């Protein structure tokens, strides 16, 4: 069973964080079809968050076809995200490492690299978040 | 759909003056409402009006569709934990639960015991820690499976760890009962983790009310070079402006965002948003509420 965690300072809405964590677990193969997600009550008793927030995250996952809610039994994984992207991970990581080398050669230290990456990510995904 | 708690131009005057004035709000069903504002803002007065302990001086109030003064039966569905969570100190936990069972028309013994978890029922209330007393009060309130649960400064006597435990327990109970909850607190950090609706009171008036997500989405911080402020495209209102040296920082209300390369645009956190709406310079400007789902006051 997956356990959720929250980053209060990320600025990302709580329900989005839950959706992202389920998707990440699917991509990494931690969750598979048929696996059960924790009940709303389990999540709120663990994280001290609003049950409506958990319900909203689960509804969103259901809308995307990734989970199904079975009356009285819980919410179960119904779809996968893993295979198509996983096979590209290695190549993408190597490219990213090449880019990091290049940035270091250009004189950026770790802090400026992190700042550049996070501001680029923010810009690129502003409409999504 | 009927609102669990709705007020219309509600006001309460004490001998020393108005504690609450022109208060109009609608709490959505199953919301977790943060009733925020500094001490003396009128938060407790609003809750005491809602449970019929006080009579309104003007305006009207409806709790689960009924007037709590004329129709006290409505209060069977309302849980109320006043400030300091008063309990009988000489009672044991078991005796406290027995009293609650006998005095409530509806009593969910199983839920109350579940929420009390490991609390030893033979212990005296006077021997319990502040956190344990808060847990007991909350279990009592949930035992009647209230449609509406009102909590007045529940965190006041709790340390951060006990505060987090309390919040966990509260959310656990809510996921069982589906109660609408109003939590009065002058510390925004204590409630922002859970509340999806905000009512901000200051000096007896509603300063801001709305869905938290919508409020955060419709407010932005703009930082840029100091200049005469004309109209900025996308900005409906400048809520607060600050200038220092050559820089200006504006908190603005927007619909659909601000696209202007001369301003750097950031989101805002709930606490800062509420502080801005509480600012004294915003107080003396009474503005008629706008129609629509969100209402802006003052």
What would your notes on this structure say?
The complex is a heterodimer of chains A (129) and B (298). Chain A has 129 residues and is mainly alpha-helical. Chain A has five helices and three strands. A three-stranded antiparallel β-sheet of chain A has the order 1-3-2. In chain A, strand 2 and strand 3 form a beta hairpin. In chain A, helix 1 (14-27) packs across helix 3 (51-63). Chain A starts with 13 loop residues before the first helix and ends in a 5-residue tail after the last helix. The model of chain A has no long low-confidence stretch (mean pLDDT 88). Chain B is of the alpha/beta class and 298 residues long. Helices cover 26% and strands 30% of the residues of chain B. Chain B contains eight helices and 14 strands. Chain B has a seven-stranded mixed β-sheet with strand order 5-6-7-3-8-9-14, sandwiched between helices. Chain B has a four-stranded antiparallel β-sheet with strand order 11-12-10-13. Chain B has a three-stranded antiparallel β-sheet with strand order 2-1-4, covered by helices on one side. In chain B, strand 8 and strand 9 (205-211) form a beta hairpin. Residues 285-292 of chain B have low confidence and may be disordered. The A-B interface holds A 8, 11, 13, 40-41, 44-53 and B 30-32, 164, 167-172, 174-176, 193-196, 213, 267.
Radius of gyration of chain B: 21 Å
How many helical stretches of chain B? 8
Sheet with the most strands, sense and barrel status of chain B: 7 strands, mixed
- Give helix % range of chain B: 25-40%
Low-confidence stretches of chain B: 285-292
Distance between the termini of chain A: 26 Å
Strand proportion of chain B: 25-35%
* Number of DSSP strand runs of chain B: 14
Binned, the helix content of chain A reads 55-70%
Radius of gyration of chain A: 18 Å
- Number of discrete helical segments of chain A: 5
Structural class of chain A: mainly alpha
Shape of chain B: elongated
Q: Could you give a short account of the major beta sheet of chain A?
A: 3 strands, antiparallel
* Average predicted local confidence, pLDDT of chain A: 88
| Extended strand count of chain A | 3
Overall mean pLDDT of chain B stands at 90
